[in-house]
Design brief:
heterodimer, A: about 290 residues, mainly alpha, MetI-like fold, 15 helices, B: about 270 residues, about 80% helix, globular
Chain lengths: ~290, ~270
């Protein structure tokens, strides 16, 4: 499932298969275009659909945002409520990403190197946040952290609720990017280091961590992007209080519902830009990892 | 293997299991418990409500269409990306991933700006010709397609890389035409990847909320899907019904996960 969770997983996580590399080398010698008539037609139809579905609508957002010019962006961002939503979203997304980097790596390590009863169950549960509808995720969290909490924790409608919801939906990302890399990693390097007298901490810091860093980075980027754009799980859980628990997605939705499409588009285009940056960063990490293998 | 000391091992195990238990397992368990707090009457009440059945049916229809469209598109694009060279391939490959990190709300807004009947780019023209996309099921299918777009491609592309094209070339050299090669050679070898992709897309499509909320207009009885109904019922203080629908949605998503988990090892051996 890792592959589905994350753009980079497959290529970043596995050592690139030899076939995967061949086109890279071959690219210089073979013609740049190897499409036959049938494949060309297929590509054409696919591109028309892709444009109708993705490219044109997203351009409509950018165009609507650009219509207002820089003044529009400034107006939107100068609005105190919007700015509060932006800082809350970025802050919480960063916090959750840091939590995921630590806990996600630990979970991946436990799944690969540890053995205990119920491990395969843990492995399946990791994917639950990905498969669960986001609105249900909010409802589910509300039952443990809401007003009727059996633990006596009332986090609903507070900023903690935002952290919870984001942590829930981003749980699988780092686990699923780090896990396959850890599986492929040979343990003999670690053994060699140990036999040369390296302590466990040194082995972790000097051997394990450097090989995991690209995967962790890819997972972190995806987790951050997902956290910034989250909407569904927050609807019921956070209460969407202005200045307190309102995130950017909710702000965009409010703009849409009020009919101020230009403001919505301005904010949405900023989110879109962040998404693009993440995609490009992932692509770069992917290439670096592919080269190292 | 370098042995990790027992306390460290237990500590890490505790962190991993504890975190997942508190964040995922216990809350999901509680919701299931709530659903059956009254011995299953919430569920039977909800299932005898016509509106609920309509919503569930709409979700099924939208999800099925989205999966079928993504299946055809996904397999086509995967084969093109892996087996052919063409200008702009890398850009396309990166753009395919875009839906994974775009907010559902932005997806909804994008479709709204392009296709709404009042002032969208193409909406008025389409509506003059009798095609209404926004606030109607085609728009909802498009929103669902958008968010689940990369899932099948992400599963199929690595497998296509792995199997290489030796067999396809052999088939072609023996006189098989393109459709024959596809149906007899390529498809059987990527079968399982396609199945995972479909199952994952199905889970994602059934659960889509934000984008569909904007595009559908959330009209009760007409464009209200199951996830939208969970929100409406919960906010209407009909929490029992919200729990019951959520339980059904949890069942679907866990069934999808179990199917993937059961199928997965077969690929590795």
């Amino acid at each position: 499932m890792s592959s589905a969770l994350s753009g980079a997983t497959i290529d970043a996580a596995r050592p690139a298969p030899p076939e995967g590399r061949r086109p890279r080398r071959a690219r210089r010698t073979t013609p740049r275009n190897t499409l036959g008539r049938g494949a060309g037609l297929g590509l054409g139809i696919a591109m028309v659909w892709f444009s109708i579905l993705v490219l044109l609508p997203l351009s409509a957002v950018v165009a609507a945002a650009a219509e207002g010019g820089w003044g529009n962006y400034l107006d939107v961002l100068r609005n105190d409520q919007t700015w509060a939503a932006v800082t809350l979203t970025v802050g919480q997304a960063a916090l959750v990403t840091v939590i995921n980097i630590v806990v996600g790596t630990v979970i991946a390590w436990v799944l690969v190197r540890d053995r205990f009863w119920g491990k395969s169950l843990l492995d399946v549960i990791i994917d639950v946040p990905f498969a669960l509808p986001t609105i249900v995720a909010g409802l589910v969290l509300l039952s443990l952290y809401g007003p009727n909490s059996p633990m006596g924790v009332h986090w609903a409608f507070t900023p903690n609720a935002v952290t919870l919801a984001l942590a829930f939906v981003t749980l699988p990302f780092i686990v699923r990017t780090v896990q396959p890399v850890l599986e492929e990693l040979e343990t003999d390097v670690e053994e060699a280091a140990a036999s040369l007298g390296a302590g466990r901490l040194t082995i972790f810091r000097r051997i394990l961590l450097p090989s995991l860093t690209p995967a962790i980075a890819a997972g972190a980027a995806l987790s951050f992007a997902r956290a910034i754009s989250e909407y569904g799980s927050l609807v019921l859980l956070s209460g969407n209080k202005p200045f307190e628990t309102e995130v950017v997605s909710v702000r965009v939705l409010t703009f849409i519902e009020n009919g101020s499409n230009a403001s919505a588009a301005a904010l949405a285009s900023i989110m879109l830009f962040v998404a693009l940056v993440v995609i490009v960063a992932l692509d770069l990490v992917q290439r670096r990892v592919a080269r190292r293998w | 293997m370098v042995r990790t000391s027992l306390p460290v091992r237990w500590l890490l195990r505790l962190i991993a299991v504890g975190y997942v238990f508190l964040l995922v397992a216990w809350p999901v368990g509680l919701l299931v418990k709530h659903t059956f707090a009254d011995g299953g009457s919430f569920l039977s009440d909800a299932l005898s409500d016509e509106r609920v059945l309509d919503a569930l049916q709409l979700t099924a229809v939208v999800a099925l269409w989205a999966v079928v469209i993504n299946l055809v598109f996904g397999v086509t694009i995967s084969i093109l990306l892996v087996r052919y060279e063409f200008p702009g391939k890398r850009v396309l490959s990166a753009l395919i991933d875009l839906p994974l990190s775009v907010s559902p709300v932005v997806v909804g807004l994008a479709l709204l700006l392009a296709y709404n009947g009042r002032n969208g780019w193409f909406g008025p023209t389409l509506e003059d010709n009798g095609v209404q996309l926004i606030f109607n099921s085609p728009g909802m299918i498009m929103a669902t397609c958008f968010v689940a777009l990369p899932l099948i491609i992400r599963e199929v592309v690595p497998v296509l890389h792995e199997i290489g094209d030796d067999q396809e070339q052999a088939a072609r050299s023996l006189g098989a035409n393109a459709p024959q090669t596809f149906w007899r050679i390529t498809l059987p070898s990527i079968k399982w990847a396609v199945v995972y992709g479909v199952v994952l897309s199905l889970a994602r499509s059934v659960g889509e909320f934000g984008a569909v909320k904007i595009v559908s207009g959330n009209i009760t009885g007409r464009t209200q899907t199951a996830t939208l109904m969970v929100e409406a019922k919960y906010q209407n203080f009909q929490q029992d019904t919200a729990y019951a629908i959520s339980f059904l949605l949890i069942l679907v998503s866990i069934a999808c996960l179990v199917v993937v988990a059961l199928l997965r090892p077969k690929k590795d051996h």
